[in-house]
Amino acid sequence: MSSPSITGHAAAQGGENTRFIILISLVATIGGFLFGYDSGVINGTVDGLKQAFGSDAAVTGFNVASMLLGCAVGAWFAGTLADRYGRRTMQLWAAVFFIVSAWGSGIATSSAEFVVYRVLGGLAVGAASVMAPAYISEVAPARYRGRLATVQQIAIISGLFFSFLSNWWLARHAGASTDVLWWDYEAWRWMFWAELAPAFLFLVALFFIPESPRYLVARGLRDRALGVLTRLYGAAQGERTLGEIDASLAQDHHRPRLSDLVSKVTGRIRPIVWVGIGLATFQQFVGINVVFYYGAVLWQAVGFTEDQALMTNVISGAVSIGACLLTVALIDKVGRKPLLWVGSVGMAISLGLVTVAFASGGLDDSGRLQLSGSMGVLALVAANVYVVFFNLSWGPVMWVMLGEMFPNQIRGSGLAVAGLAQWTANFLITWTFPMLLAGIGLAAAYGIYTFFAVLSVFFVLKFVHETKGKALEQMEG
Fold this sequence. Notes:
The chain is an all-alpha fold. The protein has a single domain (12-474), classed as Up-down Bundle (Growth Hormone, Chain: A). 75% of the residues lie in helices and 2% in strands. The protein is built from 19 helices and four strands. A hairpin with a 5-residue loop joins strand 3 and strand 4. It is globular. The two termini are 31 Å apart.
């Protein structure tokens, strides 16, 4: 399917059309914004879900985590279907699913109905999570590819921030998330419906960006690919890039398929695939989405009111955006691996401090954790430092690396496998947190996340290889 350009064709003839590249990359990152919003909106709705559906801890945990099942499926199939139908096409489907999920989640009258709509939203989030970085990496030049791909994480965090801000404002305006706001609907329902505006914007904007040229070459559509490359880089560089893509695919004339992940020499899964799986799972096992999904529950558990807890989420979201902006400035200068290593060390230390703070508290008569003034401050500061280190490193850099580390022939399939691993790990962490909170307590739960942060330090040092400055055609697996 062809699409009109969102900037002049003639501007690209004389050389690289940087404005065009940035604009189409920004359109792709709207999917990241929706990814973040859809992930974070659940944070302020937990009390409403409990009240509306009469759910216990296990069912509430599943209601919150149900989206992640869809994410795992969406990431798995989006990667492989994108090799067949295109990166942009899969993003169009994701936009439609975002719209249906946002409306349905707010109108749901039972846990089962809610789960169905959240799973649909998960399919969209999963697809957007792997398609946006893949698309950006395939249209951006190597010298600033990392910065553009990092904008995806800024979009994700911005989505989280605006979901937190929207949740706080709607709950405060209504009195509480469970109180009726407008037209006899509770505030928590409006929290989901607020996503409809950016979802429709994403759907419309996608019709104005081109398909990935590397996908077009892989499908044998060389003339269309050359047209896109010319608009991106100019006529001369477009021809050269087309030749490089042809050369990278020349060793394997068949179209990309899942079996390409297995080495024809050894008969085993390629090492680069295991590295991708490791990056994806460690990003979740450090527990970041416990903060994103259960932030309100977490801070209420240590004595905050609902209003204070929701405002704390807003502050965390703003701090996260600042950290991601710093990553944009650094990633193409210092590289991917140093940022991952520094982030792992910082997360291990800050999570350890959070664990110490939680371990110092005791339970009141209602079973809520009570911290002393100094330990409460330590927990709050250390948790936000942890969020900063995550968003300076593993948050954006993991997605950047997944989008660029795989060779052209296996990029879609590699992203599918890594995306499935990422969202499966996300589901396990999210689903188990309420049970860990009720069973072994906050301190022990955060001790587990600290352990994985420490392990991630050694994983980065031993297995992760730098991709800074390399053309996608240079990637080996």
